[in-house]
Design goal:
about 600 residues; mainly beta; seven-stranded antiparallel β-sheet; disordered N terminus; binds beta-D-fructofuranose
């Protein structure tokens, strides 16, 4: 009785917001938000750069989970929903530490049958994957099964900045139209859910199959108070629901703090699963017969490639080398942050051999190969089990330098276009990893405009590329050089914002300058010039995919690629061609509207 009385006195009633939500202070000074669940969502008001609060969710007195949420104190920038439909009729309590009694969220928090917001905000891409709302970074768990490509992704479901790492989920039948699915994996007592991969367990090696569908296995890093370990989840219903393995974690490291991003594949010759993991600045390789018990095999990386940052998100796979008879090579993708060729995050790769235990590299120590030379291509990994022997990748289209600051509202960041990978032998004997948009995106092409061939002796502008240009289009430009030293073309709009693409022939370099591209000041590292080496040749074939807030450039079928975000005030609808030191011909120029 004494106890109850004490509680009663200690609770201070702070008021009632909409839908009978009661706000109080408990005896520990925490804010309690109490209500009976009777709608589908609880809508939380968020202040984008506000303070982070730990929010515990209790249902009928039992703690369900906790998240870190920027509950609005002074102003509401956007809202996020908590799906409470599973707890209909039950008593829900949010417990928040350190929130001031006058915080605006306490008056505005509400239950609602719907969650609506401006999905089509200004910089929402049209044919690139973005989360429905909230934050996204790395693509995860990409696997093809039964006609569906699965894309999981690092997701904050409670805000548009990095936090509360969970696996968001989407599926597609064609790699271009995505259907949002509920969040697949939420954080638990072992930590938040970092990056990882998924496979189809064809032979039920893990023994987790329960029905007629093959089991999908997902491997992911859990991160908790500076420690990182690997866990397993499985699905017996085509990836729709996931069960966390009861004896997680399945793999710990004896010493390393950075131990993450498991990428798993089946290695036929030894009948074992292989897992690559990023450990500081090397890749460790493990193997397993049942996908649960793992044995250390080897590591790779010391002295090889770029070491200006931490290695993350590896991927190891075999590919045929084009026009080389039976020759096959193993490719080890290894993302790195920072240290990229144009600053910040980027994707490097190695080619070599793999014998089931060890990766042996063909590249010389110290030499670095980049998959994409732009600023916004990171955490690239490939789909498991893709049909027709295709090796398909997707990357996060952003950069850790400024990813948390990009000027969008209800969502932040997205993915590159899915790309098909090829190994191409260069004239000097070098083998490079070409990456080019999957052919599926061609079905999105709408109205086409073709420009007759022309010659640039100094400068020439083509105005009004498309009648109703909404910033969603494809541009193909083939250039024959006669004797120019500088070959340039600038996409621009009526506000004099532009992206300047330029070949410097004597230097052997390709530049993409976005310093004047539109909004650039939201972060000092955004305004930049990306640069790639490019061989001197007579014909250059450019394909540019433009989608509201990005330019992906592919030259020579993806032998050189460059991906950059842009935030123009209005779409670039004109092109200004220029030359220096000589002339060149544009012998093909076509523009497609993308539907
Ligand atoms: C790469 C990365 C991964 C990690 C994840 C966390 O961008 O840092 O190494 O698993 O993001 O969100």
């Amino acid at each position: 009785m004494k106890h109850i009385l004490f509680l009663f006195i200690a609770i201070i009633f702070l008021g009632c917001s909409a839908n009978n939500i009661q706000v109080q202070k408990n005896n520990e000074g925490k804010t309690t938000i109490n209500f009976k669940a009777d709608k589908k969502y609880l809508l939380l008001p968020i202040e984008d750069t506000g303070k982070e609060y730990r929010v515990d969710i209790n249902v009928n007195g039992k703690n369900i989970n906790h998240y870190i949420i920027r509950l609005a104190e002074k102003k509401i920038d956007y809202w996020v929903p908590v799906d409470i439909s599973a707890w209909k009729g039950e008593q829900i309590e949010l417990l928040v530490e350190g929130l001031s009694d006058s915080a605006i969220c306490l008056k505005q928090i509400k239950q609602s049958g719907i969650f609506s917001f401006d999905y089509n905000e200004k910089y929402r891409p049209n044919y690139h994957f973005t989360p429905y709302y909230g934050w996204v970074n790395d693509p995860n768990g990409m696997v093809y099964y039964d006609g569906e490509y699965h894309l999981f992704y690092q997701n904050n479901p409670f805000g548009t900045r990095w936090q509360n790492m969970s696996w968001g989920h989407a599926v597609s039948k064609d790699l271009v139209t995505w259907e949002y699915q509920p969040v697949a994996l939420y954080p638990d007592s072992l930590g938040t859910i970092f990056s990882g991969s998924a496979v189809v367990d064809e032979n039920n090696t893990a023994g987790l199959k329960t029905g007629k569908e093959k089991t999908l296995l997902a491997f992911y890093t859990q991160s908790e108070r500076g420690g990182q370990w690997q866990s397993l989840a499985y699905s017996n219903d085509k990836g729709r629901t996931w069960t966390k393995y009861s004896k997680n974690p399945i793999l710990k490291h004896p010493t390393a703090r950075d131990f993450r991003d498991p990428k798993v594949f089946w290695y036929e010759p030894t009948q074992r699963w292989i897992m690559t993991l990023a450990v500081g600045q090397v890749i460790e390789i493990y193997s397993s017969a049942n996908a649960i018990d793992w044995t250390y095999e080897s590591n790779f990386g010391e002295g090889y490639g770029n070491h200006a940052g931490v290695w993350e998100c590896p991927d190891l796979f075999e590919l045929s080398v084009e026009d080389s008879g039976e020759l096959k090579k193993w490719v080890l993708i290894c993302n790195i942050n920072p240290g990229g060729p144009s600053g910040g995050s980027a994707t490097q790769y190695f080619t070599g051999n793999f014998d089931g235990k060890t990766f042996t590299c063909d590249n010389k120590p110290g030499e670095t190969h980049w998959m994409d030379w732009g600023k916004d291509h990171y955490a690239a990994v490939t789909w498991a089990n893709a049909p027709d022997n295709r090796r398909l990748s997707i990357a996060w289209m952003s950069n850790w330098e400024y990813a948390n600051d990009i000027p969008t509202i209800n969502f932040r960041n997205g993915m590159t276009i899915p790309r098909e990978l090829r190994l191409v032998k260069q004239p000097g004997g070098n083998i490079i990893l070409a990456n080019y948009p999957v052919t599926e995106i061609q079905k999105l092409r709408g109205e086409q405009r073709t420009i007759q061939p022309f010659t640039i002796s100094e400068e020439y502008s083509i105005k009004n590329l498309l009648v109703n240009n909404n910033g969603v289009y494809e541009l193909n430009i083939n250039i024959d050089n006669v004797d120019a030293e500088i070959i340039g073309f600038k996409l621009f709009n009526n506000k004099s914002e532009s992206v300047d693409i330029c070949l410097n022939i004597p230097e052997g370099k390709l530049y993409m300058d976005r310093k004047e591209s539109g909004l650039v000041h939201f972060n000092p590292q955004f305004a930049a010039i990306a640069v790639a080496p490019i061989a001197k040749k007579q014909t250059y074939t450019f394909r540019l995919l433009i989608d509201k807030a990005s330019v992906e450039l592919f030259e020579a079928g993806g032998e050189t690629t460059m991906t950059n975000l842009i935030f123009p005030e209005e779409p670039y609808n004109h092109v200004y061609f220029y030359s220096k030191g000589g002339i060149y011909n544009v012998n093909k120029m076509e523009i497609y509207n993308i539907k």
